[in-house]
Amino acid sequence: MVDQASRVIRVVGTAGTRAVKDAFMVCLDLFKVMVPIIILVKALKEFGLISYLAAPLAPAMRLAGLPGEMGLVWATAIINNIYSGMAVYAELAHDSGALTTAQITILSVMMLIAHNLPVESKITQKCGVGFWGQVVIRMSGALACGLLLRFVFDAFALFTEPAVLAFEVKPEGASLLSWAGGQAWNLCMIFFVILALLLLMRALTAIRATNFLEWLLSPLLRVMGIGRRAATITVIGLVMGLAYGGGLIIHEVKGGKISRQDVFSSITLMGLSHALVEDTLLMLLIGANLWGVLAGRLLFSLAAVAILSRFLGPRLAMKNSLLARIF
């Protein structure tokens, strides 16, 4: 009995050590990408350059039924993150009044689909897909989804009441040291989350739960060009976020376990629709409608990836083609 217990302890210890090493290597790859981009974005923000990126977005915002100044909200989210976009919106809403629930739902979906693009697109590039291809897909996808939602909301006169803003602007730490400490803490949290996910993946594999998930999801994912090997990781990315799903994709790609088409389809789906729980709840704080933000974004993402995988999938195998280099 003692020998059996000690054997179990050794196996668990070995698996834990291996998981820590794998998590370290995954995070090393991620942080090489994330840290320089985070510093660049901070510089853009400090020098006030993000506002210059907002001006070209004004026509797109009006096309989606939003005031042109909301381009600053979207530009902030695109370059930085959703929290920063929310803060800018809260300031604008305080000065000029809140949008309707329909308008803030449209703005929220556009931010959720296209945000933090410098960091997240670099992560996807590390997974083996094109940086600019993902930027184009997410930007055009955000606008297309916004236009579709506007058409539906206008056609049925939905959500015309003023949006209720329940989000307070919290100023960032004034000092550079405070900012750096916050970023270091975020990176530490990413390491521990990825470690936990790797341990979870190995536990699920050991009890064959991943086989069940792959079987359960394979019909839906097959339509979108995602093979069974990428099914579990794709679900993790949808629920947890692109950095975590991308980190696991990097780990699997290095082992040669996922095809090029699976990587493209999985990463694209994660890009268009990830962190479904956390990000959806954030948008409710600025007055968005739950089903518009959650169901609208997810249904659009599933349809978009199904179309893209059918069109681009066969061409991605042609390594020297222009599309393969872009996407």
Query: In DSSP terms, counting alpha (H) and pi (I) runs of 4 or more, how many helices?
Result: 16
Strand content is under 5%
Q: Which regions are unreliable across 5 or more consecutive residues at pLDDT < 50?
A: none
The coarse overall form would be: globular
Q: Any idea what the radius of gyration is? A: 21 Å
Distance between the termini: 55 Å
The total count of strands amounts to: 0
Order of helices and strands: HHHHHHHHHHHHHHHH
The main β sheet shows up as: none
**Overall pLDDT, averaged?**
83
Question: Structural class per helix/strand content?
Answer: mainly alpha
Helix content: over 70%
What number of domains?
1
How would you describe this protein?
This protein is mostly helical and 327 residues long. It has one domain. Helix content is 77%, strand content 0%. It has 16 helices and no strands. The chain has helices at residues 2-46, 50-54, 58-63, 70-79, 82-96, 101-113, 117-127, 131-155, 176-206, 209-223, 231-240, 242-254, 260-272, 276-284, 290-316, 322-326. α6 (101-113) runs antiparallel to α8 and α13 (260-272) packs antiparallel against α15.
Note the topology.
Blueprint: H1 2-46, H2 50-54, H3 58-63, H4 70-79, H5 82-96, H6 101-113, H7 117-127, H8 131-155, H9 176-206, H10 209-223, H11 231-240, H12 242-254, H13 260-272, H14 276-284, H15 290-316, H16 322-326
Helix pairs in contact: 1-7, 1-9, 1-12, 4-5, 6-8, 6-15, 7-8, 7-12, 9-12, 11-12, 11-13, 12-13, 13-15, 14-15
